[in-house]
Specification:
alpha+beta; Heat Shock Protein 90; Ribosomal Protein S5, domain 2; Ribosomal Protein S8, Chain: A, domain 1; five-stranded mixed β-sheet; 18 helices; 32% helix; elongated
């Protein structure tokens, strides 16, 4: 009988395990920094070359390892944190499975130097692909230093899946920042290709957040402090007006361990209900302290997903604590029974400019003129309906003056003078004028062969600007306009790195600016941006280059899309049907007129059959 099952060799088993634990260079940084924290380090330095593909060096001043422990730590499932299965539910350390160093050693060249404080000499171990090449005494300071070289050298398929250097380094920054946020008392340093990215001295939590994200964050933070029998909750939430269009500033920690939770995130969003602008996300840095026996951290290889025994109670505590804090600092709406509420405006209307009301009078109307059909009577229904339609137009119904925003011009489609009948009414296509539209809000409504065509006007403008800008960008730099008064913006170290990294491309796109002392001064912007949309355009640029994982070949496309999005937010007023027709003509000249650069639908058609079904 032939047997099919066989034991895998150790080096293959280690490579398979490495595929789960070490997904990219950032995974190595996370594991080594967590090991340093477990070793009692107060200072940790991380030095990166070529986004970690060439070198990842982590230096700590922890307690170090003995000769025996230094050799044993590279074996699979060798750990000092767990003795029995019950220990998994009383963990106070970062690592516990003993897989990290074995996995790293299986797919890279590792050099480790470590020394105990009481020892006279340290230990140096060199490993290549799980094989120990060198194991000898060495002179070393107290603590441990890891040099991880040529990551994935023996797994070329995995190396080929790595992204461009800026993307991989962004992941390293993310892991570094999460550890920095969860351990503000540690002294931390991060360099990239010899350039210092972060130097973070020990600090209180608020100061640590400001040191990482920039000084402008100091006034944005609302403190949270709540203690219950179930959980102790501390940290900060960002004020609603500083909510972002990305989820970058959202951090949960439990017992100083970073984790992700859609369930708890929903509690935060619920607490901010009614305070956020549309399509924005609240920022928070929240720290939960819970009895380790009531959480399970061993449910995911990267330990970023955690099970909570009393998650429903924690959900309620999160939501109520944040609402209480927002109310305490006069951020959330207050209940005032003496206040007149009839003047309250919805959030979407608060940013619209105020317009003076106007009254339009039909000068030709004479109530004493008995020859006109001001009276209703037999044989006058057709004339009455005509005057009624004229009166509606003359009184300015839907006109620009009575509109609630800049887009609301009304051009009535010609009404049929025939009495309404139950059966379908057939119109000749030639009888429908192409220059008659209804413009309501962001939407242009026009007739089409099959029924009605709805066009999202702002998305149409966005696509037109994108197409023109991108076509010009291919051959020439985008036309730029110099600002009379430069725009300044405080930037984080992370944002400064990516602005300087993309500086040449940004100049090609029409942006000129320099960064000094974590402050950006923009002196020129693309000419397609009007004054009111410049600030939003700069914010969109930062969201693209600093907070979105964009591939190198797509950076220009994404940045131009961001510029087009900001340009579409300018105030646009159609004073005549011809201007609307011009917009539609420009839209249909675009290669892609159905979807915006952000893949949002621009055109929707409603057929006569669909309209008819509404009246069944």
């Amino acid at each position: 009988m032939h047997n099919f099952i066989q034991l895998l060799p150790d080096h293959i088993a280690n490579q398979i395990a490495a595929g789960e634990v070490i997904q990219r260079p950032a995974s190595v940084v996370k594991e080594l920094m967590e090991n340093a924290i477990d070793a009692g380090a107060t200072k940790i330095e991380v030095h990166i070359k070529d986004a970690g593909k060439t070198l990842i060096q982590v230096i700590d001043n922890g307690k170090g390892m003995s000769e025996t422990d230094a050799t044993l730590c590279f074996e699979r499932h060798a750990t000092s944190k767990v003795r029995t299965a019950d220990d998994l539910f009383s963990l106070t350390t970062k690592g516990f499975r003993g897989e990290a160093l074995a996995s790293i050693a299986a797919i890279s060249h590792v050099e480790m130097r470590t020394k105990l404080e009481e020892a006279e000499t340290g230990r140096k171990i060199v490993i290549e692909g799980s094989k120990i090449i060198t194991n000898e005494d060495t002179v070393s300071p107290t603590g441990t230093t890891f040099d991880i070289k040529n990551l994935f050298y023996n797994v070329p398929a995995r190396r080929n899946f790595l992204k461009k250097d800026s993307t991989e380094f962004r992941h390293i920054q993310d892991e570094f920042e999460r550890i920095a946020f969860s351990h503000p008392t540690l002294q931390l340093k991060l360099t990239n290709n010899g350039t210092e990215v972060y130097y973070l001295p020990p600090a209180v939590l608020r100061k640590r957040i400001v040191n990482i994200l920039g000084p402008n964050y100091n006034d944005r933070l609302v403190p949270i402090d709540e203690s219950t029998e179930i959980v102790q909750l501390k940290g900060f939430v960002l004020k609603p007006e500083h909510a972002k269009k990305t989820r970058g500033d959202q951090f949960f920690f439990v017992n100083d361990r970073y984790f992700k939770s859609h369930y708890f995130n929903h509690a935060i969003t619920k607490a901010f209900e009614g305070l956020l602008a549309p399509r924005t996300f609240p920022g928070y840095f929240l720290y939960l302290t819970i009895d380790p026996s009531k959480i399970d951290v061993n449910v995911h290889p990267t330990k970023t997903e955690i099970k909570f025994e009393e998650e429903k109670f924690i959900y309620s505590i999160l939501m109520s604590s944040i609402r209480l804090a927002l109310g305490k600092y006069n951020i959330s709406p207050t209940l005032d029974f003496e206040r007149e509420t009839s003047f309250d405006l919805p959030h979407d209307m608060k940013m619209q400019p105020a317009r003076e009301p106007s009254i339009r009078v039909n000068d030709s109307y004479n109530p004493f003129n008995t020859t006109t059909s001001n009276r209703t009577g037999s044989g006058s229904s057709g004339k009455t309906q005509e005057n009624f339609s004229k009166a509606i137009t003359d009184q300015g119904f839907g006109s620009k003056e009575s509109s609630s925003n800049d887009w609301a011009d009304f051009y009535p489609i010609e009404e049929s003078k025939e009495e309404e009948k139950d059966e379908a009414i057939l119109f000749e296509e030639e009888a429908t004028s192409a220059k008659q539209f209804i413009v309501k809000g962001n939407y242009i409504i026009s007739s089409s062969k099959s029924g009605l065509m709805l066009i999202h006007a702002r998305r149409a403008v966005e696509q037109i600007v994108y197409t023109e800008t991108f076509n010009n960008f291919i051959s020439n730099p985008i036309e730029s306009q110099t600002l009379l008064f430069p725009i300044t913006r405080e930037v984080s170290k992370n944002e400064a790195v990516y602005w300087n990294e993309n500086k040449a491309l940004l100049q090609q796109l029409g942006f000129t600016g320099k960064i000094e002392d974590q402050k950006l001064e923009v002196t020129a912007v693309p000419s397609v941006l009007q004054e009111e949309s410049i600030s939003s355009g700069i914010e969109d640029i930062f969201e693209t280059i600093a907070y979105q994982n964009v591939e190198k070949g797509d950076v220009a496309h994404t940045l131009i899309a961001a510029i087009a999005k900001s340009a579409s937010m300018k105030n646009i007023n159609f004073s005549a049907p011809e201007s609307i027709q011009g917009l539609i003509d420009q839209l249909f000249q675009c290669e892609n007129h159905s979807y915006s650069p952000r893949n949002k639908k621009i055109i929707e058609t409603i057929t006569l059959d669909e309209i008819g079904n509404k009246f069944n």
